[in-house]
Amino acid sequence: MSAPIRVLLVDDHAVMRAGFRMILESSGDITVVGEASTGVQAVSAASALRPDVICMDVQMPDMDGLEATRRIVGDAAIGSAVVVVTTFDRDDYLFDALAAGASGFLLKNAGPEELISAVRVAAAGDALLAPGVTRRVIARFAAAPVPAASVPAVVPPQGERPIGDLTEREAEVLRLVAQAMSNAEIAQRLYIGEATVKTHVSNVLQKLGARDRVAAVVYAHRHGLA
């Protein structure tokens, strides 16, 4: 049996942290190893605990969650993935979170399974956005090239590779990724193993020069593949 996914909860409302803890630990493969109520505490706890995933609120005392995310992701010694979970459905929070290096963006009204899925995906080294959020990222960035400095975590590098570098199977996987499908859903659709899907996704990201799945989705829509 594999080790449970270790999670740090960061939110300035104790009731919200308690709710998240109950949801995540009900999954059976996730354990909450710590809590923090401010951005400063989050950075300190992340450094001390080095959790696999951090569920990060945005509006908090002392330091907001976006700056805390930037500091945590920027410290390679911590090695934690950050999923931003916020009440506020604001584009500036979404794009700033992605630029800070967040591996996911959820609203607090998301269902329990969405929260659990986001933690699992982030722990596996992938990025996850709800379909509605993905559409907003695409609407902003897919229509035309954007200077890399403005959204470094989202837009593929200027020297992105052509789609011809992908095999037929990799292109098929990319199309399904662009439909916001998880590795498990892609495996089921293509009748292949989930580990094989993960290998294909990794190859796609490397060949496209894309940092994560979000950048791959933008690439797919920009080039008419989705």
Report what the structure shows.
With 226 residues, this protein is α/β, with parallel strands linked by helices. It has two domains: 5-129, Rossmann fold; 145-222, Arc Repressor Mutant, subunit A (Orthogonal Bundle). Helices cover 48% and strands 13% of the residues. It contains ten helices and six strands. β5 (104-107), α5 (112-123) and β6 form a beta-alpha-beta unit. α9 packs across α10.
Descriptive terms for the model:
single chain, 226 residues, alpha/beta, Rossmann fold, Arc Repressor Mutant, subunit A, 2 domains
CATH class of the largest domain: Alpha Beta
Shape: globular
Mean pLDDT across every amino acid position: 84
What number of structural domains do the residues give? Answer: 2
The CATH homologous superfamily of the largest domain: Response regulator
Secondary-structure element series: EHEHEHEHEHEHHHHH
Name the structural class: alpha/beta
Number of strands: 6
Briefly note the CATH topology name of the largest domain: Rossmann fold
Instruction: Report helical residue fraction.
Output: 40-55%
Q: How large, in whole angstroms, is the Cα Rg?
A: 17 Å
Number of helices: 10
Largest sheet: 6 strands, parallel
Strand content: 5-15%
Query: Which ranges are low-confidence, i.e. pLDDT below 50, for 5 or more consecutive residues?
Result: 144-160
